[in-house]
Amino acid sequence: MKDVLPYISIVSSLVAAGLGFRAAKVEIRNSIDDFMDDIQRQGRWAGYAAIAAWLAVVLQGIDRLAG
User: Which residues cross the membrane (predicted)?
Assistant: First the structure.
């Protein structure tokens, strides 16, 4: 299991980067009603990216402590 942790962490980092890129690509429209929905959608994607980044950091920490 110890040998797998770095690879899972790398995959989680790549997922975080992809989700962050997806959050950045959300189109923000001009209408105030659409604007609020767009910001909410962007925040949701950014939140997923933060969770994936957190997972990558935790796995790296576990790997360092176990090794």
Answer: 6-24, 45-62
